[in-house]
Amino acid sequence: MNAQDRAETTPHETGGTTAADDVAVAAGADPASREPGAGGVDGADPDFAHSASRGDARPVSFGRRVLAQPAAKLGFLLTGIVLVLALIGPFVVPAWTGYGPNSFAGKPFQTGIFGTDNLGRDVLSRFLEGGWRLLMYSALATVLGVGLGAVLGMLAAFRGGWLDALIMRCGDVLLAIPQLVFALLAVTVLGPQGWVLVMVIGVTHAPRVARVIRAATAGVVAEDFVLASQMYAVPQWKILARDVVPNIMGPLMVEVGLRLTYSIGAVASLSFLGLGMQPPTPDWGLMINENRIALALQPWGVILPVIAIAVLTVGTNLIADAVAGASAGRVRTTKKTSRKRSEKGS
């Protein structure tokens, strides 16, 4: 039976066609018709077919693949601890410590549970109050950088030609400028404000994200289902939204994790250098700068924010690594989990 006969005798059971169906139709075959015994997928894995015969062939979601890795669980734990301190802290500062973040609590560098800072303000109060700004600015910078870079990378790969060259060359220019120099120029012109931090860090992230997304998009654009959509004159925005974006979500999520990690360090570093939050605003990076002169006398003003920033950075880095492993199919499981799966399979 040829492909045309199969197309006439096999009805479509779905209510519409996908990009893969368009390719099959263009080739003269019905995508709903499959050879018996192939499991519905050409070149299917025998292990997958065996698991399907047992009735447990449900596809594993991306989130489950991430959480299957021990590094992801540790990363979420570390990140969650800092998130709770940073987000809940401002609401419990007056009741818990008895002092506001800018209230006078004693002599400068006075000893105690966590003591006072260089101006006699309670260190714990300022620590609990100063974390949410770091998280907010880091998240906004990540969204700006990844969003801008993803759009530019997809356009460069999808359109090609002079637009691709223009986007990549502009990215090369931005990459050639050190982030600190760019931040100094922006702060000199616009002043030390939070949105300036977000803009500087986000713009410096965009070229790096664009390069990664451009490479991922170029591989998807060359696939047959995208070519079929173009052949049927599907609008470009619909091709990007329906065919390209779902197939680059793995690299995109990896970039989100990596850029968030870099944003945390960049926001803290720029605040430490006086290019971010200004006194008397409570901020972890600013606390390190204010209390470093008396590190030996009263170290808690430096130790608390340093530990929080380090734990948050390690946690987000572990999550990013787990996302990268899940995207590439490298799922590490414990021996106990592997033993349970083998027993279930037998």
From TrEMBL:
Tagged with keyword Cytoplasm: no
UniProt-annotated location(s): Cell membrane
Keyword Methyltransferase among UniProt keywords: no
Family: Belongs to the binding-protein-dependent transport system permease family.
Name this protein carries in UniProt: Peptide ABC transporter permease
SUPFAM superfamilies the record matches: MetI-like (SSF161098)
InterPro entries: BP-dependent_transpt_permease (IPR050366), MetI-like (IPR000515), MetI-like_sf (IPR035906)
Pfam families: BPD_transp_1 (PF00528)
Domain ABC transmembrane type-1: 131-324
UniProt keyword terms in alphabetical order: Cell membrane, Membrane, Transmembrane, Transmembrane helix, Transport
Domain of life assignment: Bacteria
Region: Disordered, residue numbers: 1-55
Organism expressing this protein natively: Kocuria varians (Micrococcus varians)
